[in-house]
Amino acid sequence: STGRRQRQMCIRDRDYVRAHLGGGSYRVTGREAGTIPLFGRPPAAAVGSVIPIGTRAGMVKASTGYGFARIQRHSAAIAARLIRGRGPAGAAPVQRWHRALDGALLRVVRDDPAGALDVLTALFAQNPADRILAFLDEDARLRSQVQLYATLPLPPFAHAHLRAVLGPPTLARRSATISARAVPDGTASDL
């Protein structure tokens, strides 16, 4: 129930203040709650001089709900374009590679929950915190990313990452993968 959750939060807050801030007296003056939309859809497009920022610009990382670093980079990119006399609509700080990684993790969670548990367990058990945080913040250098990937169980993550990078098979790719069909006489025929 909501009331029980609020009481638990009050207890947790009180315990935190006592443990980390010396336990002096304090008063809660307000609480904040909300939801973060976690979806992997493309960002909204600019309309005229109105450009999307934050969540509408696709700056919330769908796999984690974290958006602060992306939003800061996006804001800096917008400001830099404006300073150079260019329109802000072209500022796009999120790289395709990072969107593909995010999409891969979401695919593993959706399509292979057991594989997702294996990926996340390996991620947090076999990597130092600074490497994980740099990876999640999209600040990891290539070498660090390779070191991190080397700790992950490859089948679920690699398959999902390839699908995220390449997208779903198109009709042309699907038909190209079917190169021959058996005919009644037992020979093969090109399609």
Quick synopsis:
With 191 residues, this protein is mostly helical.
Q: Tell me about the biggest sheet?
A: 2 strands, antiparallel
Strand elements, count: 2
Strand content: under 5%
Summing up helix and strand content along with how strands pair, one would put the structural category as mainly alpha
Q: What general outline do the C-alpha atoms trace?
A: globular
Could you give the order of the helices and strands?
HHHHHHHHEE
Give the strand order, joined by hyphens, for the main sheet.
Answer: 1-2
Q: Helix proportion of residues, in percent?
A: 40-55%
Unreliable segments of 5+ consecutive residues: 170-191
What value does the Rg take, in angstroms? Answer: 23 Å
Structure annotation, total helices: 8
Tell me the span between the first and last alpha carbons: 61 Å
* Mean of residue pLDDT values: 77
Keywords:
191 residues, mainly alpha, 8 helices, 52% helix
Structure description:
The chain is mainly α and about 190 residues long. The chain has 8 helices and 2 strands. Helix 3 packs across helix 4 and helix 3 packs across helix 7. The protein is globular, with a radius of gyration of 23 Å. The protein starts with a helix and ends with a strand. The C terminus is likely disordered.
Topology readout:
Layout: H1 2-20, H2 68-83, H3 96-111, H4 113-125, H5 129-136, H6 142-149, H7 154-166, H8 171-177, E1 180-182, E2 188-190
Antiparallel strand pairs: 1-2
Helix pairs in contact: 3-4, 3-7
